[in-house]
Amino acid sequence: MLTWIKLAVRNLFRNARRSLFTILAIALGFVAVNVLGGFMVYIFNNLQENYIYGEANGHLTIFKTGFLDKGKLDPTRYLLTADQLMTVEGVTARHPEVLVNTAQLGVSGLLSNGEVSTIFIGTGRVPSDVEKIRKYANATQKRIRQYDGQPLADDDVNGIGVSHGLAKALNLPLGATAVAMSPTVSGQINALDARLVQLIDSPVEVLDDKLTIVPLGFAQSLYDTHSVDRVTLLLDRDTDVEAFRTILAQELRRSGLDVDIRTWAELSPFYTKTKKMFDVIFVVSFVIVFMIVVMSVVNTFTMAVMERTREIGTLRALGVKRRRIVGLFSMESVVLGGFGSLLGIALTLLVVTSVSWLEPTWIPPQMARRVPLQIYLVPTYWVFSTLMLMLLSTVAAILPARKAARMPIPNALGYA
Predict the structure, then answer these.
(1) For every residue of the chain, which 3-state class applies, written as one string?
(2) Does pTM surpass 0.85?
């Protein structure tokens, strides 16, 4: 076997320039696929991190059954009462994998600066719980600040945050006061004074003139209720979210609660659609790149077989079987694919290192600020790409080699 490998390497470098260009084509195909794959994993990871930790939405969210279907039309019928909230807290407290348990209440109404009013929609949250969730984010996500001003505080119930567009529409600078008005759960009109302590980035442009974030106490006072519309759970990173959801649903059902538990992926359609889109892009790119590689290998070995037809005839005349001839060319293709993959790995590392050193930034979808652009190293993609390149190179080399090996010996010896 060692002899055949040496022969394969020597044969490859009979025409060093042609082999070098083929190796380069394989390497660039490797780089293209793995850089795109690394960028995709970076996109998916950061969308997930931003939704779960950056926006403090957690891994699981508990709703009263029916809230997601009918809660927008009649939200007061599908609120979790204070007693039900205590039951949820009691059940989740038995599970150490639950790192943070926090309640939320969606609010909407009118926000006025004393002269004009406009619609606002937002969420009431416990500020300290939001900060706890963000502390579990990765290093990149921790560096991203999605607001200007000061963070909300539990003891400053009237300090709220509004989107940049809403603040501009009402001419509200940081520190300004406004009045929030909304019907209570009993249908009466209520109004509360609010002080603008932060300007937040809206993840969706259409909400930039409407979005607010307020302390949970402010939202409950505005609606005159102690109820909430959801409970968010942050789990340990090693927890199987789907399995834990099943266990939690069973325990809450035994406790007498009729709830609907959704995962972060189910509540983030943007992530799901983006992932499907990039998966299609990756498959199409993969097919195009490897078709180019296959054509390069086919061209290289077709030329090599034509040049070495008389040599093949000589080997056949000396008693070498057809499968040995095909095996020799297959070995050459494996070596060619191996060299191309090794060069591709080196170039991919160079690209990743360069991006890490240059630290470019960009503004991704659903973000208003520039964030670091990264390309992740994905060993699984590397192994898959190497195996595919070597397999495709082998298949591409077998076709012309079989044709030459089946040629009658006299014809092969007299080939010119």
Answers:
(1) CHHHHHHHHHHHHHHHHHHHHHHHHHHHHHHHHHHHHHHHHHHHHHHHHHHHHHCCCCCEEEEECCHHHHCCCCHHHHCECHHHHHHHHHHHCCCCCEEEEEEEEEEEEEEECCCCEEEEEEEEECHHHHHHHHHCCCHHHHHCCCEEECCCCCCCCCEEEEEHHHHHHHCCCCCCEEEEEEECCCCCEEEEEEEEEEEECCCCHHHCCCEEEEEHHHHHHHHCCCCECEEEEEECCCCCHHHHHHHHHHHHHHCCCCEEEEECCCCCHHHHHHHHHHHHHHHHHHHHHHHHHHHHHHHHHHHHHHHCHHHHHHHHHCCCCHHHHHHHHHHHHHHHHHHHHHHHHHHHHHHHHHHHHHCCEECCCCCCCCEECCCCCCHHHHHHHHHHHHHHHHHHHHHHHHHHHCCCHHHHHCCC
(2) no
For residue 20, pLDDT over 80 is answered with: yes
The per-residue pLDDT of the chain, averaged, comes to 86
Is pLDDT of 385 > 90? Answer: no
pLDDT tens digit string along 140-179?
777 777 888 899 999 999 999 999 999 999 999 999 999 9
